[in-house]
Structures are given as structure tokens and as C-alpha cells.
Amino acid sequence: MTISLSDLGKRFNTDWIFRRLTYEFSAGNSYALIGPNGSGKSTLLQVIGGALFFNEGAVRYRSNANQPIEDELIYKEVALAAPYLELIEEMTGQELLDFQQSFKPFIKEKNSFSILEEVGLNDAAHKQIRYYSSGMKQRLKLAQSFFCNTPVLLLDEPCTNLDQNGIELYQRLLSLYTENRIVIIASNDPVEYRFCQHQLLLSEYK
Known about the structure:
With 206 residues, the protein is α/β, with parallel strands linked by helices. The protein has a single domain, classed as P-loop containing nucleotide triphosphate hydrolases (Rossmann fold). 26% of the residues lie in helices and 27% in strands. The protein is built from six helices and nine strands. The protein has helices spanning 41-48, 93-101, 112-118, 134-146, 164-176, 190-193, and strands at 2-12, 15-26, 30-34, 56-62, 68-69, 78-81, 152-156, 182-186, 198-201. The strands form two sheets. A five-stranded parallel sheet has the order 6-7-8-3-9, with helices on both faces. Helix 4 (134-146) runs parallel beside helix 5 (164-176). The two termini are 28 Å apart.
């Protein structure tokens, strides 16, 4: 899969977050969106994922068979983990993953319990998410994204609230579950993006 940005621009009211951004993301590669606070890292990630509209330019998606993917269908191709995404806290961890599996399948040979076990949450599988610590919630968000059978993985500050064991888990997931995917990480922390093959400095697109 490829994602192509052409003269892309996004503004809020009269304030341009970024402009004239032309870039291409391709399968099997990892990319870091870097830059100072306010440079548009999270905004661009949400634009790529189809969650935010842009104001100028174009975003084009093409499948592995080089066929165009319509904008309204891109959500099927993308998994996102971000601090600002809310979990359904009335559900248990297993209920949440089972619910997600009903509309966005997991990778082969994975189910909700095996995923929770892999991210260290098996003992909390039947506990309501409202009783999870912030670190446990972040592990669950990573589980939701990494184990989705999608060609695009978007990660916004993925180590938020994680302790050292959680960071090691994150790095292990990167090594095991990103082959042949487009991985895009928005971060200012090298621990989160140091494995990336490419870096895009957003402060250059003002």
C-alpha cells in the first residue's frame, strides 16, 4: 500500500499548521513525524487516518494491487493508538477486544485472550477498563492497534504512561508485528521512533 500527500495543507481558522507538504509513505517502511510542540504531528497523523479534513492539496491511497482506495473506506485500512482516544470503560478488556474484532478483524491466529496475554493484561481480562491504571489502558490501546489486520499502523506518542516494562513491550510489538505495514509514529521521544527508517520534520512545512 502507498499513501501519497500532494501539496497538503491544514489550518485551524487562519492559522496554518502545515502547508505544501508532499510526501509518500510505502509498505514495509517506518516513518517518524517529528518537530516541536504545535508543529502538527498529531494533526497530520489524523489527516492521514481520515479523522480530520485538510484544507488544500490531496491525500491518495493505493492498495497493494495499485488500485485507488476511496477516502470513505480508508478507516478499514488503518489502526491508530493515541493518548486522546477514549476506551469504553464500562467494558472489560476482553469485551472491548471482542467488540473490535466484530468490525476490524485481528491478524491470523490471534483472539482477544491471547492478545491480552501478550500485552500482560490477561489477569485483568474480566476487569472493567475503568479500574485499569493509565499504563494498563495504554497497553490496551497498543493491543487494539498492533493486532488489527490493517496495512497501516499510526502511533501517536505510543509510550505515554508506560513504565520500562511497557516500553520494552512496545519495542517487542514493533519488531514482531510491523512487517510489510506502513508504520507512522508522531513523537518527540527517540525511544518511540528510533527504529524508524525515515523522519519527516514538520516544522519545515509552515
